[in-house]
Amino acid sequence: MRSPPRQSEERATGRDWCAQVLVAGRYRLISPIGRGGMGEVWRATDEVLGRAVAVKLLLGDHADASSTARFRLEAQTAARLSHPHLVAVFDFGSWEDRFYLVMELVEGQSLGDLLKTQEMVHPEQVARIAGQAAAGLAAAHRQGIVHRDIKPGNLMLDAEGSVKIGDFGIAQFVDDPSTALTGAGQIVGTSLYLAPERALGRTADSASDMYSLGCVIYQLLVGRPPFRSDTATATLYMHVDTPPVPVRQCGVDISPAFDAYLLGLLAKQPEDRPSAEQVSDWFRTDAWRGQPEPLPPHIPSAVPPAVPAAPAAPVPSAPAVPGTPATAGGVATYRLPQPSGRRRAAPASRAAGPVPARRRSTGEAIRRRPRVASAVAGTIAFLAAVYLGTVLFAPDSGKADVQDPSPSSTAEVGSPAAGDPAGSGPGEPDEDEPDEDE
Question: CA distances (Å), 401 to each of 388, 404, 409, in order?
Answer without folding.
Answer: 12, 10, 18
